[in-house]
Inverse folding.
């Protein structure tokens, strides 16, 4: 197993059936390369962030999840940030997936318009 020394004693959770980029954590590689991230060798796999969050809250290991998934748990002390001092600046793409129709339903169009105002345009 090719784990970083500070991950050796921790179970790590990962995503399956999703883009492989979600299994790359915002940590420098062992060789010091900082722009590519660190691909984990997971012990637990799930296809849902909520599942990984619940596993972490129950003490099954550490996970790398979006702030919006962990905000309440961090605020209530159920989860604590780890490795924050060496984490790299990191962003993941946001995808809006919907059925293709003749016209986009008004509620979907409203959501897309809202997201476009909140996301940096250089990342759209």
């Amino acid at each position: 197993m090719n784990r970083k020394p500070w991950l050796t004693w921790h179970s790590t959770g990962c995503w399956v059936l999703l883009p492989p980029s979600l299994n790359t954590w915002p940590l420098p590689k062992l060789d010091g390369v900082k722009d590519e991230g660190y691909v984990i060798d997971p012990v637990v796999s799930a296809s849902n962030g909520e599942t990984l969050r619940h596993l972490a809250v129950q003490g099954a290991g550490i996970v790398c999840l979006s702030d919006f998934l962990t905000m309440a748990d961090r605020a209530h002390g159920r989860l604590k940030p780890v490795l924050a001092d060496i984490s790299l600046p990191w962003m993941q793409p946001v995808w809006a997936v919907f059925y293709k129709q003749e016209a986009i339903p008004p509620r979907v169009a409203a959501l897309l318009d809202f997201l476009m105002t909140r996301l940096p345009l250089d990342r759209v």
